[in-house]
Design goal:
This protein has 7 helices and no strands. The chain has helices at 3-16, 20-40, 46-66, 72-86, 95-109, 119-130, 136-147. Helix 3 packs antiparallel against helix 4 (72-86) and helix 5 crosses helix 6.
């Protein structure tokens, strides 16, 4: 079952439960997924669906950062939507799992003593593997700690 179907099903359940805020959040997510599919002109892959959900969560977090402190209504709505969207977000890699991927890449590249000079090569090979599974900032931090 695709994420569009899962989201639609969850939205219907929210409608039946008369949970208007959840229904509205799911409706917005469903629209984002459908729009991406329309732009692509074919069904989305599981990875692409995950990217859409993560993008929506990132946009909500950006909104939270830019919202003035006295606008608690907007902050509450953003936090609620983030919690709903996280139910549909792909499982993110832990720092240990990212370190395992780094170990594999270092072995593949034949680097015996990785240093900061190797960061570019490691990141170049690592990012495609963790795309949609880990945030870039977290990956960069883990690589920096690994090399530091």
């Amino acid at each position: 079952m695709s994420m569009i179907d899962n989201t639609r099903k969850a939205m219907m359940e929210a409608m039946k439960a008369k949970d208007k805020p959840r229904k509205e959040a799911l409706s917005a997510l469903l629209s984002a997924l459908k729009n991406k599919a329309i732009d692509k002109r074919e069904d989305l892959t599981e990875a692409e669906e995950g990217e859409v959900v993560l993008k929506e969560i990132k946009q909500l977090r950006d909104t939270l950062e830019q919202t003035p402190e006295d606008r608690t209504d907007i902050k509450d709505e953003c936090n609620f939507r983030i919690s709903v969207y996280e139910e549909f977000a792909p499982k993110m890699l832990t720092e240990d799992e990212i370190k395992e991927e780094i170990d594999k890449i270092v072995a593949e590249l034949g680097i015996e003593n990785p240093t900061v000079k190797n960061k570019g090569a490691i990141m170049k090979n690592l990012m495609p593997r963790v795309k949609g599974k880990a945030e870039g900032g977290v990956v960069s931090k883990v690589v920096g700690e690994y090399l530091g």
